[in-house]
Predict the structure.
Amino acid sequence: MSTEILQNLDANVIVPRVVQGAYPKAYEKGGLSKLGYKHLVLAAEELQPKGYFQDVKVIYMPYDDSYKPLSPSQWLRLKAIGSSLSEAVKKGDQVLITCAMGWNRSGLITALTLAHLHPTATGEQIVELIQRRRAGALSNEAFVERFVQWSAAKAQQRAKS
């Protein structure tokens, strides 16, 4: 699996069709679709430009990369985005999930996407995969703890059914 920097993007392939990275400034005026992307997530609250990236579907999910807890509405929206992206990937679309540095906010959304794509993987396995594929990813312990707890609760629900 390739983990190199891609086409002037500070981004890495995490699994086929799921790419995580930093804000793609070089492509604000277009060009992501020529690289095969159909969806772009902008997760950095400080980088939410409107009117750019017109050649892909943009999902705006601005949130803070601090250790304060996510609000219930943020958590619900993040889970919905992960689910939606997983459906796009299953259809064959390629997605680019970004934040300012491509580490934590994008990492949490990537983890939620992978959890839907690979429902039998543990939260710890998903986090380890992302960290292996993207240096510096998911260093925010609050995000990791929230994701791992959610993943474990989902596994318990599956085991009961």
Summary: The chain has a mean pLDDT of 92. The helical segments are 72-90, 105-117, 123-133, 141-160. The beta strands are 11-15, 18-22, 37-44, 57-63, 94-99. The domain at 11-155 is CATH 3.90.190.10 (Protein-Tyrosine Phosphatase; Chain A).
